[in-house]
Write a structure and sequence with these properties.
This protein has three helices and six strands. Helix content is 29%, strand content 20%. The strands form two sheets. Strands 1-2-3 form a three-stranded antiparallel beta sheet, with no helix packed on it. A three-stranded antiparallel beta sheet has the order 4-5-6, with no helix packed on it. The N and C termini lie far apart (102 Å). It is flat, with a radius of gyration of 37 Å. It is α+β, with helices and mostly antiparallel strands.
């Protein structure tokens, strides 16, 4: 009787399997490298369609539906004539000439209280929330913290408006 080496077909099968998976990995890596370049050189196949406005209410050459039912109902409800133009203009009298930089901060609605001070930072509370501030920090009402000092075992913050915000017991 002849003995057959049973390890040889198993090794061959494993070698073929490893080669197949390695080839698949190389093909996948090659596709991952090549696809972005294909997209780069063929943008017309991958970009969204370009929308151009002709100025007469038509997109892509499709006529706009102007049955007028909606416009007629709106005219009858309001008693006024609608402007048929898609865009409108603002009258120069309605435009304000002031810049937003000239707008003052809102007035002070509530008082601040110091909750805790440590390492140059202070926890300040008012009715809207709790804030962490340091020197030269701006409070919500526009004032700036100019000084932090300790008097009579309590911390006080001095603001740019010479207002003293004290610690509550």
């Amino acid at each position: 009787m002849r003995r057959v080496n049973s390890k040889r077909p198993r090794r061959l099968r494993k070698l073929v399997s490893n080669a197949a998976w390695g080839g698949f990995g190389l093909m996948l890596a090659g596709g991952a490298v090549a696809f972005p370049w294909y997209v780069y050189f063929n943008p017309e196949q991958f970009s969204p369609p370009r929308i151009e406005y002709s100025g007469n209410g038509e997109l892509f050459g499709e006529p706009e539906d102007r049955s007028g039912a909606f416009e007629q109902r709106m005219i009858s409800l309001r008693g006024e004539i609608l402007d048929p133009v898609e865009t409108g203009t603002v009258e120069p009298a309605n435009i304000s000439s002031g810049s937003s930089g000239d707008q003052p901060f809102p007035g002070r609605s509530n008082a601040y209280r110091v909750l805790h001070v440590a390492n140059g930072l202070a926890l300040v509370r008012d009715d809207t929330g709790i804030f962490i501030v340091q020197l030269n920090s701006r409070l919500p009402d526009g004032q700036v913290i100019k000084e932090m000092r300790r008097q009579d075992q309590k911390w006080e913050l001095v603001t740019s408006g010479n207002e003293i915000v004290g610690e509550t017991p």
